[in-house]
Amino acid sequence: MIFRENVPLSGLNTFKTGGSAKFFCIVGTVDELKNAVCFVTENKLPFFVLGGGSNALFSDRVFEGLVIKMEMMGRGAVEKENGTIHLSAAAGESWDKLVSLAVGNNFYGIENLSGIPGTVGGAAVQNIGAYGAEAGDSIIEVEILDVSDMKVKTLNVKERLFSYRDSIFKKLEGKNYIVTRVLFRLKKEGELNMKYKDIREYFENKNFGEITLKDLRSAVLEIRSKKFPNLNKFGTAGSFFKNPTVNKNFYESLREKYPQIPTYPVGGENFRISLAWILDNICGLKGFKKGAVGLYENQPLVLTNFGGASANDIKNLADEIARTVKEKIGIEIDPEVVCV
Ligand SMILES: Cc1cc2nc3c(=O)[nH]c(=O)nc-3n(C[C@H](O)[C@H](O)[C@H](O)COP(=O)(O)OP(=O)(O)OC[C@H]3O[C@@H](n4cnc5c(N)ncnc54)[C@H](O)[C@@H]3O)c2cc1C
User: Fold this and answer.
1) Which residue among 55, 70, 302 has the greatest number of ligand 1 atoms within 8 angstroms of its CB, and so is best to mutate?
2) Which residues are catalytic?
3) Which CATH architecture has domain 235-339?
4) pTM tops 0.90, yes or no
5) 99-153 pLDDT, tens per residue?
6) 58 and 19 in contact (C-beta within 8 Å)?
7) What would be the CATH architecture of the domain defined by 4-70?
8) For residues 114 and 219, is the Cβ–Cβ distance under 8 A?
9) Which residues contact 311 (CB under 8 A, 6 or more apart)?
10) Ligand 1 atom closest to the CA of 120, numbered from 1
11) Using a 6 Å cutoff on CB, does residue 68 contact ligand 1?
12) Fold of 75-187
């Protein structure tokens, strides 16, 4: 395995920004991953595990450590009892190719997550979600390398690995874990998840007969193509911020002031509120641009590098947005994107 030095990172993330990595390597197996971890331990360096770079904002400076690019590959499906399918994929596999494989085989469960860039490992770490589904809904096990004792372990979903756009892997308890493989439970016969308004409207407008899994994937891909900028032209990491969660009292006062604000209950008397709506309707930031970076017209949460923006430009705009939201309605918002 080769450890390269001073590798530019701008070609390795979808914001297309960032400085360089002092050290960089690509790992294709667990043994190579172990070698990479030994390298950082021996040299007392920090490390960063990179999947597809579709949810990471690298600073413009040098990352003074090792960037480990995950390219572990391999997928396999096994049929279990009652039409259950166990689909396993290595962390470096493309997320959307996995969804395509599942849909192509008529396995139900992850079709609403079609078209999300990145790797299978990244999808588990970020607990990706879209159109009423989350990766964590279908994951039953995650295989990890625990860098504290260099053992490969299997974490069961009963260990409460996931929450909204979050997982144990982003918290202190999971800081020593590198995801190497993910196991999904899918179904041979299932029901389409049509809870999300955009999806229902898509089919209502098209006068469809019986809707198949493939139709649903096509619908999601078409809807998404209008919401996100074209990655061949622009830089983005999808939604920069999470939708904030507020308690009942706050929710009620907000509702009184802004009766149209989209909200939904998330249990425990808490409510999630649409940040996109807040940015457009309360903060007046629709289509706001500062230099080469701005909020995407069709989806304000999507900060976009329209060409030539630095990581600093993006971070500054994100900070300004967070300040504005705090000033206007008193809510602290959290980034979904990992800032490195
Ligand atoms: C156009 C666009 C649309 C998007 N739409 C959505 C969407 O609808 N819903 C959504 O939830 N997200 C969305 N995203 C965000 C992004 O695609 C997901 O978060 C994705 O899962 C990130 O995967 P990645 O492999 O690119 O991770 P990276 O960006 O490489 O890494 C993200 C984080 O995960 C960690 N990580 C990655 N792999 C591993 C591993 N194997 N082990 C341990 N840690 C690891 C990294 O260290 C980092 O902290 C979108 C992004 C873009 C650019």
Assistant:
1) 55
2) 165, 239, 336
3) Alpha-Beta Complex (3.90)
4) yes
5) 999 999 999 999 999 999 999 999 999 999 999 999 999 999 999 999 999 999 9
6) yes
7) 2-Layer Sandwich (3.30)
8) no
9) 15, 17, 18, 19, 57, 58, 59, 60
10) 25
11) no
12) 3.30.465
